[in-house]
Design brief:
The complex is a heterotrimer of chains A (about 525), B (about 350) and C (about 180). Chain A has about 525 residues and is mainly alpha-helical. Chain A folds into 2 domains: about 40-380, no CATH class; about 425-520, Transcription Regulator spoIIAA (2-Layer Sandwich), CATH 3.30.750. In chain A, about 65% of the residues lie in helices and about 5% in strands. Chain A is built from 22 helices and 5 strands. In chain A, the strands form 2 sheets. A 3-stranded mixed beta sheet of chain A has the order 1-2-3, with helices on one face. The radius of gyration of chain A is 29 Å and the shape is elongated. Residues about 505-520 of chain A have low confidence and may be disordered. Chain B has about 350 residues and is mainly alpha-helical. Chain B folds into 2 domains: about 35-205, Orthogonal Bundle (Cytochrome Bc1 Complex, Chain D, domain 2); about 225-355, Cytochrome Bc1 Complex, Chain D, domain 2 (Orthogonal Bundle), CATH 1.10.760.10. Chain B has helices spanning about 1-5, 10-40, 45-55, 85-95, 130, 150-155, 170-180, 190-205, 235-250, 285-295, 305-315, 330-355; strands spanning about 60-65, 80, 160, 165, 255-260, 260-265. In chain B, the strands form 3 sheets. Chain B has a two-stranded antiparallel ribbon with strand order 1-2. By secondary structure, chain C is mainly alpha-helical. Chain C has 2 domains: about 10-45; about 55-170, Cytochrome Bc1 Complex, Chain D, domain 2, CATH 1.10.760. Chain C contains 7 helices and 2 strands, in the order αααααββαα. Chain C has a two-stranded antiparallel ribbon with strand order 1-2. In chain C, a hairpin with a 4-residue loop joins β1 (about 125) and β2. Chain C is elongated, with a radius of gyration of 27 Å. Classes of the chains: A mainly alpha (about 525), B mainly alpha (about 350), C mainly alpha (about 180). Chains A and B meet through α8, α9 and α19 of A and α2 and α7 of B.
Chain lengths: ~525, ~350, ~180
């Protein structure tokens, strides 16, 4: 078949293509510092893990997820979970540690697939209300700031136990008293540069990149002047000998089984934190774009990717709020943007590896501090304090991160979400106007005590009480049994009445279970 | 007014720079204070003065310990210590002997060790007696005396409690977290490094060799085969405790403090070691009985039978004490309730039943 | 006449495939990438590779006293690999490659020297005017002589060298502060 192609009709397509590629290039550059910082400073893994997550994680989720502005890749909270879970198991950066990390990520991926396969489980994620998620994100943000203080001062990370918030002042004192002064200088230069660059609207999006460049230049000057063996500033270190891909196998051996069992709660936390963010991000994108893409797409893509990424030396992936908002702002139109960002980064790996190697860890820690501070957004939190139940849920979720750890926070968050949903349902609005008791809401086992209480109070006051069920949308079996038992009382009569509309239309009154009146 | 000022970009930027520069200034001042403290001569406690002079700690190119492990043999010549090394060893020694700084003039003399310890009672030498090197009447190290020197030469070995090849610094940190019911200092802290220096000096003075297992290392555990195999009994333990221990440690094991000094350490309650300490295994305990058999009661050491030690340890382990840091806030709250609620309740009950103030 | 006929199983299958082709294709591409990667490049595994000379070394230093395997012996073996094949096992912390001169610890030191350095560590260094730990010495070596980067103190690239030094010191029956010319 011969088709005449009109060049004008292709012009918008070409423009879209160009814009998507530009978005991809921007994201590829933006993700590099995050990828390195998350893997070295938070997860305790070599930097190539973050880079490969930004390449393969982004590519896999883009291939598997239908959403056009979805951007996967390394994530701060998930990286922190890896670090916290594996600290007691093996020394960081070692081969054993890497093996356990790969196992942890794979188990988390399989758990995420369970959430896809078992529909009600996946549906459960929709109960995570905004205050729960925001509370957790704020809590994790604060956690990241304190977690990065040792790296900021070039101090060794203490193994064994996690560092709770209320003794963070001890870390702070350690930074002041025994921190490596060269490291502190580099960290402060980086932090200052980032914070100052953020004051200029033009530099705002690239402030972290600018900060790292300045911090690295300063560290190179220090090393040049005093010698690296005297400054002893850790750097992200070499990975130029790695190719485009570094395949790996997770650790599943007989003697590792006790440790693998011990890290299972960490795997659940990892899986859930990833899904929380993916589902929340997809929900937000749906609302911003006015479209609907089922979040099950995201769960599936994340599950498959995380189950397979450990075979490629990569951190786990989930949706990234900040990169997705960049995509949205720059007007990405298709999945090509995410795919091209992965491919651009793959190309860059060939040229920038030597430069990445000299980025100092204190500069990375400073960026983590900024990332952590950015997770606490007053503009989004503010609204939760207008409504008391929301405020309670938000504060509880925030505090639980520091009180119960990340696993405890995930469990608390889920329980809070369910409790919040049930609490709303369990309190139908009941009005007593003269002798008419109006019930708006559900009659079910949870709300029955509330209804019964008011019913008996009103019944004592009025000799003839009319119950208006016209705004009840659900009665569960226990509610029906209660109604039956009320009906069996000698002084109660249950009368079917036609609804107002039916009365006006003169319709039949057989299907009248919408409106019942109980006359006492 | 102030918020208007912060709308100006340059005000914000200069504020940021001032704050960060202030932080750096504070860090430099704190570093200088530490460095000055490292140069200070060390105010030794009596025990440390005796211990270090006995082992002939002096500056010089070579060091030869006057200690003889076996009569007729001499400890070989070792590398000598510089002035800075000696100060580190001395500081380590006073930290072991007086962790709480009861005999110090300023908290920084102990590197602010109380920051990492809860309560005012715990000190290293409560368990590591004889300033980490307890010796019997014959001048030989006591078996199972938790010797620091013998522990240093066996560091980095597989640790069955953590599943790690446990470095010496991490072992010290566990002491801080669990046995002192506190927090962990950073391993780069002078607090840890000085104790390591002192432990290494002890191993040089006693001529201990790397990687060798010495009987004075750790605890001489009381295994079940040494007992009458009657099972550990709480009631027998309580009776024995009242008879042998309560006189010093108190009816509820709360210890004794006078004039800001700990005379008898607590074995239970808020000032004692916590649930996660290796001293404390509430079901089958072999470590605490070992310690009791070797070191208690003071002045009558070795008078208790292994079975009696097991019973007492079982009773002590089940007294209320703080929760460990890994046991979570709920357990911690419960233990606080037990520690502060139970003793008055038990006291009241015994007053009602026996008509005496103390059980 | 009823125009509706329920679709046959094959039609339904084809319809479902039609809807899901993107997802199935995506999964296939992902799996293909992983298979190709595992075929074409060296794979990371958590195993300690036995390098030439380990057998003789472990016999000479009686490592078997601690057993053949287990955490400690594996750490010693990794330490051995690091010491003699630094460019291969500590590649993250050195810019030296197989062809370069002085590319391993063994180019300058012997394991006996390492053991003596270990028992004499944590002493004041007159040149640096402060007390220097064994770990810091190793870190300085990586940064300076190996023309590389500073590992963290807990990195097995540091830890396993310390454990190797301990092992050798035990074999030589060294005590704290032992001197070389000690008989």
């Amino acid at each position: 078949m011969n088709m005449a192609i009109n060049p004008d009709s292709l012009r918008p397509v070409a423009a879209d293509l160009k814009r998507d590629l530009l978005v991809g290039l921007t994201l590829a550059v933006l993700v590099i510092p995050q990828a390195i910082a998350f893997s070295t400073a938070l997860a305790g893994l070599p930097p190539y893990f973050g880079i490969y997550a930004a390449i393969w994680g982004t590519l896999f989720t883009a291939l598997l997820n239908r959403s056009p502005v979805f951007h996967g890749g390394p994530n701060s909270a998930m990286s922190a979970v890896i670090g916290v879970t594996l600290l007691p198991v093996a020394p960081q950066f070692g081969a054993d540690y890497i093996g356990y990390a790969l196992t942890l990520i794979m188990i988390a991926g399989l758990i995420q697939l369970l959430f896809f396969l078992i529909r009600p489980l996946g549906r459960l994620l929709d109960f995570l209300s905004e205050p729960v998620v925001n509370g957790m994100i704020c809590g994790i943000g604060l956690f990241l700031i304190f977690k990065s203080m040792t790296g900021f001062a070039g101090l060794p990370v203490n193994t064994e136990v996690e560092w709770p918030l209320w003794i963070a002042w001890q870390t702070f004192m350690a930074v002041l008293e025994i921190g490596n002064l060269y490291a502190i200088q580099i960290g402060l230069v980086t932090l200052g540069t980032i914070l100052c660059a953020r004051q200029f609207s033009r530099l705002r999006n690239v402030s972290i990149l600018v900060g790292i460049v300045v911090g690295t230049l300063y560290s190179e000057w220090l090393n040049h002047r005093y010698g690296l063996e005297n400054t002893l500033v850790e750097q992200t270190a070499d990975f130029s000998s790695l190719g485009l891909v570094y395949p790996s196998l997770p650790l599943f051996s007989q003697e590792a089984i006790p440790d693998i069992i011990a890290i299972l709660p960490g795997a659940v936390t990892l899986a859930l934190l990833g899904l929380f963010q993916t589902v929340a991000a997809m929900r937000r994108i749906n609302r911003q774009r006015g479209t609907f893409i089922d979040s099950r797409n995201g769960i599936f893509a994340d599950g498959v990717s995380n189950a397979l990424l450990p075979l490629l030396s990569s951190l786990p992936t989930c949706a990234s709020f900040n990169r997705m908002s960049v995509m949205q702002n720059m007007g990405a139109t298709s999945r090509l943007a995410a795919i091209s960002s992965a491919l651009f980064l793959l190309l860059m790996m060939l040229f920038v590896a030597d430069w990445i190697a000299i980025i100092p860890i204190p500069a990375m820690a400073a960026t983590i501090m900024v990332v952590g501070a950015n997770m606490i957004k007053w503009d989004e939190i503010r609204y939760h304090f207008n409504n008391r139940p929301e405020a309670v849920v938000f504060v509880a979720s925030f505090v639980s991160v520091h009180l119960f750890g990340l696993f405890g926070a995930v469990v608390t968050g889920a329980l809070l979400a369910l409790a919040y949903a049930k609490w709303e349902k369990a309190h139908p609005r009941i009005q007593l106007q003269n002798n008419v008791l109006r019930i708006k809401g559900n009659i079910y086992y949870g709300s029955l005590p509330v209804i019964e209480g008011t019913f008996h109070q009103a019944a004592r006051r009025y000799s003839e009480l009319v119950l208006d069920f016209s705004q009840v949308h659900h009665i569960d079996p226990e509610g029906i049994r209660w109604l039956v038992s009320v009906k069996d009382l000698p002084e109660v009569t249950l009368i079917d009445r036609r609804s107002g509309g039916e009365r006006r239309q003169g319709g039949r009154s057989r299907r009248s279970d919408r409106r019942r009146e109980v006359c006492l | 007014m102030l918020s208007n000022l912060f709308r100006i970009k340059w005000v914000r930027i200069s504020t940021i720079i001032t704050l960060l520069a202030g932080f750096y200034f504070a860090a430099v001042v704190a570093h200088q204070q530490r460095a000055a403290q490292r140069e200070q001569p060390v105010l030794l406690t009596d025990n440390c003065r005796a211990k270090l002079s006995r082992y002939g700690l002096e500056g010089g190119e070579y060091y030869r310990s006057p200690y003889r492990r076996d009569p007729g043999t001499m400890v070989p010549v070792r590398r000598g210590y510089s002035v800075a090394d000696i100060r580190a060893i001395e500081r380590g020694c006073v930290i072991i002997d007086d962790l709480q700084g009861e005999q110090a003039q300023a908290s920084i003399e102990r590197w602010n060790a109380t920051r990492f310890v809860r309560g005012q009672q715990t000190s290293c030498d409560h368990c590591h007696q004889g300033v980490g090197d307890k010796q019997g009447a014959d001048g030989r190290p006591q078996i199972g005396s938790l010797s620091l020197g013998a522990s240093w030469v066996m560091a980095d070995m597989y640790d069955r409690f953590t599943g790690l090849l446990l470095p010496f610094e991490l072992r010290q940190m566990q002491c801080f977290i669990n046995s002192s019911n506190g927090f962990k200092p950073n391993i780069a802290d002078d607090l840890i490094r000085d104790v390591t220096a002192y432990s290494r000096f002890l191993s040089a003075a006693l001529d201990l060799r790397i990687g060798q297992r010495y009987p004075e290392q750790g605890i001489d555990e009381v295994t079940v085969s040494q007992t009458l195999k009657r099972g550990d009994d709480y009631v027998r333990g309580e009776a024995l405790y009242r008879q042998k221990c309560a006189r010093c440690h108190g009816a509820q094991g709360q210890g004794l403090r006078q004039d800001g000094r700990t005379l008898v350490p607590a074995v239970a309650g808020p000032d004692a070691f916590n649930l996660q300490s290796r001293n404390n295994f509430s079901f089958v305990s072999t470590i605490l009985p070992g310690f009791i058999c070797r070191n208690m009661p003071l002045g009558e050491e070795g008078s208790l039978e292994p079975q009696q030690c097991r019973d007492i340890a079982f009773f002590v382990s089940n007294l209320p004490r703080p929760a460990g840091d890994k046991q979570g806030p709920l357990r911690a709250a419960w233990q606080q309730l037990m520690m502060h609620g139970m003793p008055p309740l038990v006291g009241l009950m015994s007053e009602l039943t026996h008509g005496t103030g103390a059980p | 006449m009823n125009l509706y006929r329920p679709p046959s199983l094959t039609t339904r299958c084809r319809d479902w495939m039609g809807q899901q082709w993107a997802v199935i294709g995506g999964v296939l591409v992902v799996v293909a990438i992983i298979v190709v990667a595992h075929r074409s490049a060296e794979v990371f595994r958590v195993t300690t590779i036995e390098e030439p000379g380990w057998e003789a070394f472990s016999r000479a230093h009686a490592v078997a006293e601690f057993g053949d395997d287990g955490y400690f012996v594996r750490a010693v073996q990794h330490g051995y690999n690091l010491f003699f094949y630094t460019e291969k096992y500590a590649w993250r912390f050195t810019r030296k490659r197989a062809g370069d001169g002085h590319n391993s610890c063994a180019s300058c030191h012997t394991v006996e020297q390492l053991a003596y350095a270990f028992v004499n560590s944590d002493r004041e260094d007159p040149a640096l005017q402060r007390r220097v730990s064994f770990e810091e010495r190793v870190m300085r070596c990586y940064a300076g002589q190996m023309d590389g980067f500073v590992p963290t103190r807990y990195d097995p690239a540091v830890r396993d060298l310390r454990i190797l030094a301990r092992m050798v010191a035990r074999h030589l029956n060294l005590g704290e502060g032992a001197l070389r010319d000690e008989t």
